[in-house]
Amino acid sequence: MQVRVLGAHNLETKETHHTCFLIDGVLAIDAGSLASTLGADEQRRVSAVLLTHLHFDHARDLPTLGLATIDEPTAIDVFSEQRTLDSVRAHLLDGEVYPDLTRGLNEGPPSFNFHALTEGERLSVLRYDVDPVRADHPVPTVGYIVSANGTRVGFSGDTGGKLLSFFTHERAPQVLFVDVTFPDRLAERARRSKHLTPSTLQRELAEALEAGVKLPRIVPVHRSLAHESEVLKELALVESALGVELEPGYENMVVA
After folding, report:
1. Which residues 6+ apart lie within 8 Å of 167 measured at CB?
2. N or C: which end of the chain has fewer CB within 10 A?
């Protein structure tokens, strides 16, 4: 299983993109930069999307992807909780800002098939087993553990904590991409918006270590562009203090 980091930040610029991942070129985790980072041929290869939640930076590129693949013979399957799917249809694919591409355009077939999932219920997507795991965020949010051929990769989604549910899962990931958005001096902002800082990540990891839980390789993403240097310095301190591997994710990084 090969995971390509399409975006590792919380803002879109010329050099940075919304947090988004692509597995083996066919399965996407979120869609905030799914069209803006991929060429036309790469977009046509995407067969399924797992949305973590309804916020714009995680769903933004769905309409563009749908229009770019409108002539493809097979619709792209989009999975998430029902509220997320309803919000995407109501606010992005609303028939005014963008066509409702779940119903097709100009009497053609739909670009998307929406599928509601339930936290804790395993599903099969393409050739992968997918376990949705509850995340701690102001709107309903799930992270995912994606498994295939003995390889397990986790994606926390936006979260203010509860990483132990990933670490102790029966299919605990070998690699976990984790939301670490703000530096420690903005801890109150992070608490209100339910994102991690390096210190809150450290507490989550220390709790797991004290419980004797084996930690996966941790890849921090969703970093605030305005505060990135602070976040990276503080992550290095956490890595040193706990003796764990914290390798920040970057655009075009590939994890195999």
Report:
1. 208, 213, 214, 215, 216
2. C
Distance of alpha carbon 221 from alpha carbon 156, whole angstroms? 10
What does CATH list as the number for 3-255?
Answer: 3.60.15.10
Are the C-beta atoms of 102 and 112 separated by less than 8 Å? Answer: yes
